[in-house]
């Protein structure tokens, strides 16, 4: 007997099905799957765009870059500058306000005060708004605010300290020199924007007279970017040259030292400064005690 014929079946390979599926138009696939897939794709795209928009909005918000010093100290007569850096200001306005009277000093690049000492600098292509105060006075000390007109308003405070101009004599408070040597005193004034018009020296209550019959007295004055230096020289020092010497600038507080002209009685002290005298003091005290003990022994 012959074999019974097997029923013919149509076999479609998985590969053919996948290829056919892949070649189908996207619209057909979406239509075949229904509108839910299309909605998912569109909603995902929308959510992604919204996230990017929110992130971009967050990145573009203005904020302060407070890397610059916010505690600034200056000297009377100098120029003070407060530097405020604002990132992503966009169309926002940056202003400077004086805290003590809530006075708006500047807004954008414009000045809103009748005091010509105040100005604002905003170099092109920079994020800096710099408040400048020329010829600073003691009343200028206090808090200044850099502001951005966002909602709510952003504020960054700066503290300005104003110190009195101060003369300083480089030598120690007590200067020891030997009779016949040269007295040399150097006075420095820490004001460079408005240097003193004059620097005078006093010996005690009297003005040092460079044209006196005594002679041998001279003054050297030098003005540089760092300040003014006045150097007093008194040659052939005499015992009468001892006393208090005061440097008096025209626009700063004075400074004083005391000069001791010695007649060779204490060689260890013939140096500038109290250190030499301090080191000599124990020796002098020991000598006095030895002398006292010796005298007591002699009396007994």
Automatic annotation (TrEMBL):
Domain (Ig-like) ranges: 62-149, 157-258
Name of this chain's protein: Ig-like domain-containing protein
Matching Pfam families: Ig_3, V-set
Highest taxon of the lineage: Eukaryota
Annotated SMART domains: IG (SM00409), IGc2 (SM00408)
GO biological process, one term: synapse organization
PROSITE patterns: IG_LIKE (PS50835)
Protein's organism: Trichogramma brassicae
CDD domains on file: IgV (cd00099)
GO CC field: neuron projection membrane
């Amino acid at each position: 007997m012959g074999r019974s014929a097997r029923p013919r079946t149509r076999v479609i390979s998985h590969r053919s099905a996948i290829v056919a599926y892949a070649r189908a138009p996207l619209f057909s696939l979406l239509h075949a799957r229904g509108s839910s897939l299309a909605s998912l794709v569109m909603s995902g795209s929308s959510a992604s765009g919204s996230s990017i928009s929110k992130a971009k909005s967050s990145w573009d918000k203005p904020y302060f870059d407070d890397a610059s010093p916010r505690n600034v100290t200056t000297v009377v007569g100098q120029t003070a500058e407060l530097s405020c850096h604002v990132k992503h200001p966009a169309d926002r306005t940056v202003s400077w306000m004086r805290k003590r009277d809530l006075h708006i000093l500047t807004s954008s690049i414009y000045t809103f005060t009748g005091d010509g000492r105040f100005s604002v600098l905003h170099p092109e292509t920079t994020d800096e708004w710099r408040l400048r105060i020329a010829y600073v006075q003691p009343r200028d000390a206090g808090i200044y605010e850099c502001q951005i007109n966002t909602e709510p308003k952003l504020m960054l405070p700066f503290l300005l300290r104003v110190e009195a101009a101060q003369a300083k004599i480089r030598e120690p408070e007590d200067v020891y020199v030997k009779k016949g040597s040269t007295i040399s005193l150097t006075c420095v004034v820490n004001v460079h924007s408005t240097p003193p018009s004059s620097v005078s020296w006093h010996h005690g209550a009297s003005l040092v007279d460079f044209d006196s019959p005594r002679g041998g007295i001279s003054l050297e004055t030098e003005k540089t970017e760092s300040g003014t230096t006045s150097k007093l020289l008194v040659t052939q020092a005499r015992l009468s040259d001892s006393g208090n010497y005061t440097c008096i600038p025209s626009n700063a507080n004075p400074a004083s030292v005391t000069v001791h002209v010695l007649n060779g009685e204490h060689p260890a002290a013939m140096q500038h400064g109290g250190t030499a005298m301090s080191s000599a003091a124990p020796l002098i005290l020991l000598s006095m005690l030895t002398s006292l003990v010796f005298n007591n022994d002699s009396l007994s």
